[in-house]
Amino acid sequence: MKKILVIHGPNLNMLGKRETGIYGETTLTDINEALKNLAKELAVDVTVFQSNTEGALIDRIHEAAVEYDAIVINPAGYTHTSVALRDALAAVDIPAIEVHISNVYKREEFRQHSYISAVAVGQIAGFGVNSYLLGLRAAVDLVRSKQ
Amino acid sequence: MKKILVIHGPNLNMLGKRETGIYGETTLTDINEALKNLAKELAVDVTVFQSNTEGALIDRIHEAAVEYDAIVINPAGYTHTSVALRDALAAVDIPAIEVHISNVYKREEFRQHSYISAVAVGQIAGFGVNSYLLGLRAAVDLVRSKQ
Amino acid sequence: MKKILVIHGPNLNMLGKRETGIYGETTLTDINEALKNLAKELAVDVTVFQSNTEGALIDRIHEAAVEYDAIVINPAGYTHTSVALRDALAAVDIPAIEVHISNVYKREEFRQHSYISAVAVGQIAGFGVNSYLLGLRAAVDLVRSKQ
Amino acid sequence: MKKILVIHGPNLNMLGKRETGIYGETTLTDINEALKNLAKELAVDVTVFQSNTEGALIDRIHEAAVEYDAIVINPAGYTHTSVALRDALAAVDIPAIEVHISNVYKREEFRQHSYISAVAVGQIAGFGVNSYLLGLRAAVDLVRSKQ
Amino acid sequence: MKKILVIHGPNLNMLGKRETGIYGETTLTDINEALKNLAKELAVDVTVFQSNTEGALIDRIHEAAVEYDAIVINPAGYTHTSVALRDALAAVDIPAIEVHISNVYKREEFRQHSYISAVAVGQIAGFGVNSYLLGLRAAVDLVRSKQ
Amino acid sequence: MKKILVIHGPNLNMLGKRETGIYGETTLTDINEALKNLAKELAVDVTVFQSNTEGALIDRIHEAAVEYDAIVINPAGYTHTSVALRDALAAVDIPAIEVHISNVYKREEFRQHSYISAVAVGQIAGFGVNSYLLGLRAAVDLVRSKQ
Amino acid sequence: MKKILVIHGPNLNMLGKRETGIYGETTLTDINEALKNLAKELAVDVTVFQSNTEGALIDRIHEAAVEYDAIVINPAGYTHTSVALRDALAAVDIPAIEVHISNVYKREEFRQHSYISAVAVGQIAGFGVNSYLLGLRAAVDLVRSKQ
Amino acid sequence: MKKILVIHGPNLNMLGKRETGIYGETTLTDINEALKNLAKELAVDVTVFQSNTEGALIDRIHEAAVEYDAIVINPAGYTHTSVALRDALAAVDIPAIEVHISNVYKREEFRQHSYISAVAVGQIAGFGVNSYLLGLRAAVDLVRSKQ
Amino acid sequence: MKKILVIHGPNLNMLGKRETGIYGETTLTDINEALKNLAKELAVDVTVFQSNTEGALIDRIHEAAVEYDAIVINPAGYTHTSVALRDALAAVDIPAIEVHISNVYKREEFRQHSYISAVAVGQIAGFGVNSYLLGLRAAVDLVRSKQ
Amino acid sequence: MKKILVIHGPNLNMLGKRETGIYGETTLTDINEALKNLAKELAVDVTVFQSNTEGALIDRIHEAAVEYDAIVINPAGYTHTSVALRDALAAVDIPAIEVHISNVYKREEFRQHSYISAVAVGQIAGFGVNSYLLGLRAAVDLVRSKQ
Amino acid sequence: MKKILVIHGPNLNMLGKRETGIYGETTLTDINEALKNLAKELAVDVTVFQSNTEGALIDRIHEAAVEYDAIVINPAGYTHTSVALRDALAAVDIPAIEVHISNVYKREEFRQHSYISAVAVGQIAGFGVNSYLLGLRAAVDLVRSKQ
Amino acid sequence: MKKILVIHGPNLNMLGKRETGIYGETTLTDINEALKNLAKELAVDVTVFQSNTEGALIDRIHEAAVEYDAIVINPAGYTHTSVALRDALAAVDIPAIEVHISNVYKREEFRQHSYISAVAVGQIAGFGVNSYLLGLRAAVDLVRSKQ
Question: Rounded distance, CA I98 to CA I78, Å?
């Protein structure tokens, strides 16, 4: 069974408790549950991981390389500032899909540049929780089309 | 039954005949067929439209306002240059979803700015034909969640 | 009797039906009627033209050269992106006046550069429908002062 | 009777005596007279004020707030450099209309940015003396439409 | 016999009637005739096409792919603003040569960037009508060297 | 007894009467009174000065040099545009503290550069009237620590 | 009793041991003691926290939300590079005050942009240890004025 | 006898009393005396004027037009920020020579752009008091060569 | 008989021996021979000159002024960095034509700015050796049309 | 015996397992062994440290200050984004040498700015594993020359 | 007797023969003669040197160090492009004065940056031949004031 | 025996005689001697070359191609301005190593861009004379690893 790692970047543990005007009222637990349900429907295995520390995210990506078939990642605030995270994704052989909850293009100028995009397969942004679910579908399609 | 309009921007009629290294070998006919199949599965109605003329795309968007529930649009070359297309999407009440076949962030600098993104609900890029299918799913989810 | 051509750029056909917070509730028909009324008062002849297609606007400007004494143009979205429209206005001998319904300087950064301004006689922006009427007055004064 | 204050910025006292290639041969006295005549025609009261000192212009704007219904201002050289003038116009409740004699978009790069535009209702530029007269009309229309 | 398509972009139909200080007094008909004469001398077939509409130029390029050996194109105002035109030239297999009548480097800043140059074989600019004739020679040399 | 000069820049005389959403409802008289009260508490002497004229502010700073121990200055609109004011503060030997009522970093881009900061000891911004009071405390601490 | 959390960013543990020309000779222990003393005087409770790890700072801010009334933060090097830290402050409901020991506007260009400023209530910079004490006062005033 | 007006901009009244590391120890009185002496030697008449107020400098330039043959101006801080001063010099028919005491190219970046240079005949900078004396010589040579 | 000077800039002596992927395998001797042959066909006299030293190229251009009717120049690396070379071409009365072997617009960003273009009659780039031959034709046409 | 600390930044633990086209096939273990061997040859003591966490790298640098004579650091992805790491190196008294495995100047634009360079003694880049060995030599020479 | 070296940069040998609209009709010989005459009057020794080669100018500056008391240099085209020339002037102990014949601030944008200014004592520009004579005076005053 | 060419760029002949604060007191002769000694130790042959003329440096590089195995080059002032030098290094097959005596990243902004870096194998900067010695070692290692 194909294995997908879903990585939540910094501050996503606060989801649903914070700035609900931008991010909605769904919590991270709700998202993880929705991901598990869709995984079951698509017959894949999903693991989730959240950290606020750049280095911990990098460590997790390195470990993923030997165990997972694809990564779905919401790099959150590190999207715009982390070359190290970009290098981590480039350093592993498995494909990564970048997702964002909000439409970053309606927000501050600095949120419109991503260090991650050029090393990801593709991006999905602006659909709230559904960004993750579409990202999981994209990952599964990608992994299966490579078989 | 919900109705979705899928708009293909300039040069997409050449798909599968051109630069296959970047865009793959699928033709526009293939994409449209895949969209129709998924539409049937999701129980929605899909219409497709392609034009190389900015004004014709704008006209079609205006007409769509009274008949469709959502737009999935690949603005292609006009993504980076057309304020008029942006204004057309802003001028109609129905939601738009921006899709791109290639990962524009791996290409020329000028392809990394979109006039469309800020007036779309969200973006999906880099998944080849699948960008359209994920876009259609996103549109359907969006339309249904608003009911 | 002096003849003035009033050109409405892309999306202005949607006026009054769209983003009324920015553009107000007056429709294009209302504007054209107001222009006709003022034309009668000023004893000039006014023709109106609207298109969403850059090329069609250029064609109309070329034709105008032999028949009209001045052009009042709201280039809308093409203001910020069309060198071709600029060249068309520069290519004809009759004076052009650039008008905008909204105060573009209160909007997005990209709306603050106009390719048209340097080839127009002058600009009028921010007065709603009245921008057109002031533009028509300016055109008539200009044409008459040249006699 | 509605009262309009017309403010002339720095160096406009030299009008008609200076750089006539750019600004024409009309003097400030001519303009003020033309404004008075139009005011009579439009049945409003017009006061004129000129100063070369930024602080004096600001003081005059503050005073205007309690006595006038609108301001027509040609900020001249301060257009491009004065945040303090912008703040003065923002600090008073009455609407301001920005006018320029020449078409600033045909001149030096630095003349194409205005600190005033975003706090004015609208702009009129390039019509010589007529910019002021159109500005007065715009002010009167504005004031009357608010009644 | 080799076939070359010569494409004239927006406003070139006004040639000889407009801004003769920049573009000279030769009309488009004169240019086309000169091209036909040189074609006869070089024993190739030349077709000419002019349109002011971006989409029409793109359509014509797509059609050319199956019938012509090379394109000589003066993209005029679209040179600086059209990614769609660039993509159209990239989408067809035949070589394109970019020509300009005037020396664009002596003109406005914005005329010094071309979206077309990177997808053309080469550029010829500044020689008036002769730019087209040199472009035709270059095209013929190119086509013959590939045989 | 230590003497502190508090300088209010342009438009601050309108405080409490203007844009209360940004600046609050406190008037300049209120601020001056609060400053006097705190001065009494801290056992220092406070003088206040307000002008809308750049030159008058400069003159006042020059005079202060021989009489005061420190300056607390809210340069308001001149913060972002006045090299002359910066040079005036650099020209006198006494320390200056820059204060702002609003958090300028939440406002327009141009308000985020200060010509004054590099010649001031420090900055305090965003605390409303309290910015002045904290500024006065900082000035007093500074003056006393130098003894 | 109101509770204030004071957060010291990266390298502040080295204070007094490093670059004393810029930061002075006070150690972090001295600062914390001075904060405690002032807290006692102001009858509030102060907790201090220092970490060199971005993620640890974020975690601490998240925890603070349920226990503290305000945050005083010196983000040090992360001021200029951390969107994640900005998002953390934006994600919690309690007000934050940004303090800096040195006057960053006298230092390198890159130190003059702060990601934190726009989500903080206000900034205090350049007063050495006193920046923290003024920050604590500001926090207390803020918290009390909201009661 | 030819008449030359020497204008000293803002803060120059503080010369010799301020930042002597940059500007030296000569006072404005010393400079004026040296100018008078050289004027006698060159058999011309010199008047000096200093003000810290932009508007006062502009007024003085306007008046000079009818009485003086040339202006030698050290615009000091207004060099870099005053379009109004530039316009004043452009508005009068007599030639202006821009002088600076210090070598501005060794100082802050913002001191390296002058709004005045393009409307002056020439510039002299970096020679301390001698900049004025060389400026006076240049003015005299200029005025005499025009006779 | 008309005389044309062909100038080869720095490193062109290495042609055919270097980076053949970009510049092809033709040597400078081959090019010079092809130029001589075409010169014979066109009945003009061609002299060639190559140097790696900026000053030597300038000296040669100065000398050319009295002897030649036109210059065809490939400024190579000096294209992007030499104002002195630009000034040399501007200083002589004979027309210059700028040629490049490769299509510089497909290469590094810094190769896309030319100091030479604005003082040349026109540019020809991207046709390999043929750039020189087309340049020679253009020069001859130019020289003959001026007779 | 002199002691040198060699710090490996983020993702260097993946060396030899990742992007071997850019970084070669040597692993971090190989590098560390080569460093140990050279250390023996040079009669110094070498300790190695690797972490993916910015804060952990900072902590290690702080500790190093009391024990080591010099630091050789490959900051990897943090080179371009970490002011905190720069401040850590500036905060300790021992010299640092910046090394990079690849020639960063042949890679993405953003890799061409280093926050570290200005606080390091010098840089060595592009020599693969040898960059470290040259860095160690440089460190030893530096430390010995200071004795 | 004090010795001054006057250095003329590239293309100045063409003076009076070239672009007389910008540089006037005086030849280099005329300038050198005028310099000799003034030198006699000021009782100093003047040597002149001209070269079009950057390296030759640098060599001459190096040699000057041991023989001359000051340099007056018109770096012409190398002003804007030569770091090596700047370094040469910085490498010698004698003061340099930068002169320009034309007012560079009225010309192309790229002529408004000088690599030389920051290493020169001062600049004199815009006075035609007189720039050199004023420069010589400045040099003599400087040399004598240092005695 | 392997042969290495060491090239010293402009002004390096002045080393030890100039700006010793930046470059130290070692002369070029000292450096060359140290290089010869190390060459003997490493059993390679070293030739040194210095010139202040860009063209002479290019000529020497061209000649080197047939005789040497590697180049160690300190391009000095030409580092930042010479595309021609870059092209010369790219045009020869042997590897080049870029060295700088000072840490250019601590100096002026313009010294932080190198045209040479992208065509060199690697860079070594900031170690004084040792930069050359490390560069020679790097060259020897490189040449030997290629055998």
Answer: 12
Query: Which residues in I have their CB inside 8 Å of a CB on E?
Result: 103, 105-106, 114, 117-118, 120-127, 130-131, 134, 137-138, 141-142
* Interface contact D122-C124, CB threshold 8 A: yes
Residue ranges per domain, chain L?
A: 3-107+117-145
Using a CB-CB cut-off of 8 Å, the residues of chain C touching E9 are 84
**What would the two tokens of residue L88 be?**
């010369």
- In the CATH scheme, what is the code of domain C3-107+117-145? 3.40.50.9100
- Answer yes or no: do G13 and J86 touch at CB < 8 A: no
| pLDDT score for C24 | 74
Which residue does chain F place closest to H76, by CA atoms? F84
Q: CA L40, CA L37: separation in Å to the nearest integer?
A: 5
- Which residues sit opposite G74 in a β-bridge? G8
Give pLDDT tens digits for J96-122: 999 999 999 999 999 999 999 999 999
Tell me, yes or no, if H100 is annotated catalytic.
yes
Q: Nearest CB to H127: which of K114, K126, K138?
A: K138
pLDDT digits (tens, 9 = 90+) for G70-121: 999 999 999 999 999 999 999 998 999 999 999 999 999 999 999 999 999 9
Whether the per-residue pLDDT at C23 is higher than 70: the answer is no
**Spatial separation of the C-alpha atoms in residues G92 and G85, rounded to whole Å:** 11
Q: Show which residues on chain B lie within 8 Å of chain A, measured between beta carbons.
A: 103, 105-106, 114, 117-118, 120-127, 130-131, 134, 137-138, 141-142
**Per the CB < 8 Å rule, is E120 touching I114?**
no
Listed residue (C5, C36, C27) closest to C99, CA to CA: C5
Which two structure tokens, joined as six digits, stand for J94? 């021992």
Share of chain I above pLDDT 90, in %: 88
Strand ranges for chain B from DSSP E: 3-8, 45-50, 70-74, 96-100, 122-125
Asked if residue H147 has pLDDT above 70, the reply is: no
Whether residue D97 contacts residue C108, with contact meaning beta carbons closer than 8 Å, is answered with no
Give the separation between CA G32 and CA G26, rounded to whole angstroms: 10
Residue F145 has pLDDT above 90, yes or no: no
Phi, psi of C122, rounded to the nearest 5 degrees: -160, 180
Known catalytic residue: F8? no
Whether E55 and B10 lie within 8 Å, measured CB to CB:
yes
| Comparison of pLDDT for F52 and H20, the residue scoring more | F52
- Residue D68 and residue D142 in contact, taking contact as beta carbons nearer than 8 Å: no
C-alpha span between L76 and K84 (Å, rounded): 7
pLDDT of residue L145: 87
H121 in Cβ contact with H95 (< 8 Å): yes
Asked whether the beta carbons of residue J87 and residue G17 sit closer than 8 angstroms, the reply is: no
Q: Facing residues of F23 across strands? A: none
For position J21, what pLDDT does the model report? Answer: 73
Question: Does the pTM of the predicted model rise above 0.90?
Answer: yes
